[in-house]
Amino acid sequence: MTSFGAVVRHGRGWLPLIGLAALLDSAVTLALPTVLGRSVDAIASGNDLTRWLWLASGLIMLGITCALVDSFAGTACVAGTTAWLRHRLVRQVVAAGPEGTRRFDTGDLVSRVSGSASDAAQAGPASVTAVAAALPPLGSLVLLALIDPWLAVGFLGGVVLVIAVLWVFARRTTEISLAYQETQGRIAALLTEALGGIRTIAAAGTADREERRVLGLLPELHRHGLLTWRVLARSGAQAALIGPLVLVAVLAIGGLQLVDGRITAGELFAAAQYAVIGAGLGSLTGILGELARARAGIHRSAEVMAVEPVAYGSLPLPPGPGRLVYDDVSVSADDVLLLDHVNLDLPGGATIAVVGPSGAGKSVLAALAARLRDPDSGLVLLDGVPLKAVRRASLRQAVGCAFERPVLVGRTVSESISAGQVTPVQLLAAARATHAHDFASRLPQGYHTPLPEAPMSGGEAQRLGLARAWHAGRLLVLDDATSSLDTATERQISRTLTEDRHHRTRLIVTHRASTAARADLVVWLDRGRVRAVGPHQRLWQDPSYREIFG
Amino acid sequence: MRRELGFGAAALRRRSTLEFAAWSVPEILPTAVYGLAVAHATDAFLAGRAGTGLAWLGGLVAAAGVGAVGARQAYRRLGELVEPFRDVLVRRVVNGALRNNAAGAVSRLNRQVEIVRDTFAGLIVVTRSFAITVVGVVTGLLSLDPVIAALVVPPFLLGFAVSLGILGVAADRVKASLFADEQLTTSAGSAFAGVRDITATGAEDFAAELVGEPIEAHAAAERALARVAALRTLCFAIGGWLPLLILLAAGPWLIGRGVSTGTLLGGLTYVLLGLQPTLSTVMSALGDSGLRYVVTLGRILDSSAVAETPKSTGSPRGHQVRLHKVSFAYGPQAEPVLHDLDLVVPEGDHLTVVGPSGIGKSTLAALICGMLPPTGGRLVVGRVPPSELSAAELAKTRVLIPQEAYVFSGTVLENLMYLAPAATTNQVNRAIEVVGAEALVSRLGGPAAAIRPSQLSAGERQLIALVRSYLSPAPLAVLDEATCHLDPEAERQAEEAFAARGGTLIVVAHRISSALRAHRILVLDGNQAMVARHNTLLRQSPLYQDLLGHWQAPQPDQIQPAS
Q1: Residue of B nearest to A187 (CA)
Q2: Where is the ABC transmembrane type-1 domain (chain A) (predicted)?
Q3: Which of A244, A310, A313, B466 is deepest in the core (most CB within 10 A)?
């Protein structure tokens, strides 16, 4: 459970300290003007200053100590809670699997981990400091009113004016910065376009021309930019005029009281200070905003934490050839039936091609075999054990899956093939078998090349994706995993697959007739149903089967 | 840090800077008058002269009015300082992106340039207000009582100086924090994009550790930043609180010297309302936006630096391509992509390059076109190494048509005449016809119609790029899988048009059918290479046989129909 309370509780060790420091700091802020005022009165009247001076020094030291405690304890609390929340979110996301994370965009998830988590971690400190932060502005108003009620009235009038200025400013900037951002976006779009054709541009030596084209909008951006400063100039001037008004109002009223002898010079000084502290009322909205942000951050984190992780079983896989059985399997998504009562008994060690027009359910069939999703009804069994009941480690050791568009995860090329699941020797063997070695070894630092510095074509990424799945002990699922390879490479890999000396079951989703022809068995899917199962040669006699391959 | 500050300072236009500074002068007035007005008003009130006291306060409002006029003018000038600076950055990023092809240029253009713009403006504003306040307060204090100035100003300056001293420490910490944040975003992005793959490989723990590392690094960086904040608090204690305590402690002595209560209050006002706020603002601005400015600008400058290309003077004689023992590797440790390749492509030849993907076909095309320098051997085009030719000279000699066709927002004609600005309407129409783009051009609305690149299919983009390259004056055309998104028939028409165009044609084949149209075929196979005609290769190259056999007879069964 990730609730506001849970996040706050995680930092509970620090919170009393943070709260205490904030309270003391507020008390210091409120007490100091009075103490300074009394000091001035003591100096003016020639009384003993020592006591007040020590008190003032003591208060200032206490204030500094509170600030130090706040920076250490506050940061430690927020940093610790943020990291704790981030770890949990990351573990949750990867454990949720493709089905669990389907409704989130990648960028959205990243922003929840990087942004929302750190917002959420403010929950504890923001809660305990909210009260303390409200004390100085509110307290100074009270103290101002205690010195003289009219001082408070003058003060409030000034504050209303300042708020009005800020409000007008916020509205006008929004409009103008929108136009600015729009122009900026158009420039970025032109640059993106040009970068897409960078090889053409480099070859044609037209970089200068492209630069002029992209920068054509720069004068417009410049104009919009200048406008933002104009608005700022007006509101800046207004603020410069209105800012002192609050203080002057308080000083004037206080001065008249001084003439009447109702307050001392020190009290007038204190009143001016309280007027300034009271103007900090605006910063209260900041604290409330922080609390609101924390609440929103926790909400966004909780949405991720609410996703059900993939539930693995506890059984090991018994020894077996890799026989794959679909027992009355149906899958639907958004009321669309993807697989409709599929029954298949696929022999272990065989090469099985899965063919069919697009939308037939081929990828769903493959995803079920790799347990990337579960059927809504029916069972998928590997060597007699339902996949759902198998331990995660046993399952992933036995079953490997390669995709049409693999996403490679890891710091280096070698990590993208195996993150320590197999030995370096096995890794190299897998890379050779899938011809990933041909280009991996030609990279600037070979297998140790950082992934972002190893730009790859679709075919090259597919070969790494194949190498990554290669360690599978019993079942190899290939979901259109060689589609981007050129004919020559595809042929080589196809041969390796057909002659697999590990005798694994190979379930190959394909669009190519040649792959189907080399398979032992072809599963022909059509609109979620098994239309036929048999060798390619026999199926080929059916004209509608031939149509699949165009 | 010096480079970034220098870069910003150099971008300041002198005239705008002077005007900005000049308009800041009126703003000194309210700051300077503040404590003075409080001092005299208090003394007047104490003496029972309410009118005089109010008049002093009225004077304070008047001074604020003068300051407001100055503020308004100064902020307008601020735009004239900041916007040109932003222009410089945008130009630099675009310039670097188009020449270095560095990743992340677009994010630099949007996010990083904005960060630098805002922090640059912030630095100017804060520096200015700090200068105004210090000058104003010192002026006010001197006119109030020079002794008070002597008590207050030195500790204030000391605190400020120490806070400048710790900036170096802070810079490293801020840098570390920004870096960790970036690492976190990158690794989380790659892991989350690959959740399916992580599940499939059972790499959940690895992924959690992969992202967990920057999470911990970020937390550590944040904790380290707390120590900087603590140092800053201590600096503030020296610069902000010490002057106050000194003034109070000296109070009785000052009164004894004839200083009035009002004057003492004025001095305290200067410290509390003038020096303290400005010190805290300038410290946090320098420590936060100042460092963000330095770090972000540093990143922009690093990634947009364009390597100077040596000016080239050679000019080619003809366009024969000759490679002698040419090798190429992407790094000193990497296995070479091409090894000791010998090849001569005479003028007027039509050569097709075939071989498995990743074998170096595109690298060969890039080498011939002078886009990459060979790491060994000698390569000449028209008897001159391409590296000795200027970009313009190269563009006149050869045209490279890459797989990813470039189509930009503009009219059809602008796109087609990109490489041949002087082409006549007849030439353009003929090129459209022979390459086979008539249907496309008319669908788009004729040559004058505007193109939205995102609305074209990959094949349509390739057709546009092919017509454009056909019009290029260069006699040597290199098609690097430039027809891979066309259907086989369209590919045939385009290739035949280029073959009949005159000059040399080199085709890096996507489909083996391209080989059948060539005079000669280069088969790349591992580090082996073989150039010959079709019939010779059929007899001598097993790879070629294999490729061709595969293409001709994909169905292994003899009883199936010939369709």
Answers
A1: B109
A2: 17-293
A3: B466
| pLDDT tens figures, A14-49 | 899 999 999 999 999 999 999 999 998 998 888 888
Q: Do residue A202 and residue B371 have CB atoms under 8 angstroms apart?
A: yes
Return d(Cα B367, Cα B363) in angstroms, integer. Answer: 6
Q: How many CB atoms lie within 10 A of CB B434?
A: 18
A319 Cβ under 8 Å from any chain B Cβ: no
CATH number at residue A388: 3.40.50.300
Count of domains for chain A: 3
Q: What one-character DSSP code corresponds to residue B309?
A: P
Q: Is the dihedral of CA B279, B281, B282, B288 positive or negative?
A: positive
Residue B323 and residue B385 in contact, taking contact as beta carbons nearer than 8 Å: no
Give the pLDDT of residue B560: 37
> Looking at the predicted complex, does its ipTM rise above 0.90?
no
User: A245 in contact with B at a CB cutoff of 8 Å?
Assistant: yes
Residues from chain B that touch A276, judged by Cβ atoms under 8 A, are: 272-273
Residues of B in contact with A110 (CB under 8 A): 185, 188-189, 192
Contacts of B165 (CB under 8 A, 6+ apart): none
B196: which chain A residues are within 8 Å (Cβ-Cβ)?
97-98, 372, 403, 407
Decide: helix, strand or coil at residue A534.
strand
Top-level class of domain B321-552 = alpha beta
Spatial distance between the Cα atoms of B281 and B277, rounded to a whole number of angstroms: 6
Residues A133, A161, single domain; the answer is no
Residue labelled with tokens 């546009």: B464
CATH number of the domain to which A93 belongs = 1.20.1560.10
Q: State the Cα–Cα distance between residues A288 and A47, nearest whole angstrom.
A: 44
Are B72 and A236 inside 8 Å of each other by CB?
A: yes
Confidence of residue A4 (pLDDT cuts 50, 70, 90): confident
In a shared domain, residues A380 and A303: no
Residues A131 and A44 reside in one and the same domain? yes
Quick one: tokens of A50? 């020592």
- Please name the residue of chain B whose CA is at the shortest distance from the CA of residue A439: B358
Q: Tell me which of B199, B222, B408, B414 to substitute to probe the interface with A (most A C-beta atoms closer than 10 Å).
A: B199
As a whole number of angstroms, the distance between CA B55 and CA B61 comes to 10
Give the minimum alpha-carbon distance from B47 to chain A in angstroms, rounded to a whole number.
Answer: 7
Segment B372-419, tens digit of pLDDT: 899 999 999 999 998 888 888 889 999 999 988 899 999 999 999 999
Q: Which of residues 137-176 of A touch B (CB under 8 A)?
A: none
Q: What is the pLDDT of residues A120-130, one digit of tens each?
A: 999 998 888 88
Cβ count within 10 A of residue B484: 18
Nearest alpha carbon to residue B230 among A26, A82, A74: A74
What are the tokens at A496? 């390796």
Nearest CA in chain A to B360: A439
Whether residue A26 is found in the same domain as residue A135:
yes
Work out the minimum CA distance from B191 to partner chain A, whole angstroms. Answer: 6
- The topology under which CATH files domain B2-304 is ABC transporter transmembrane region fold (1.20.1560)
Interface of A with B in 380-399 (CB under 8 A): 392-393, 395-397
- The model carries a pTM of 0.78
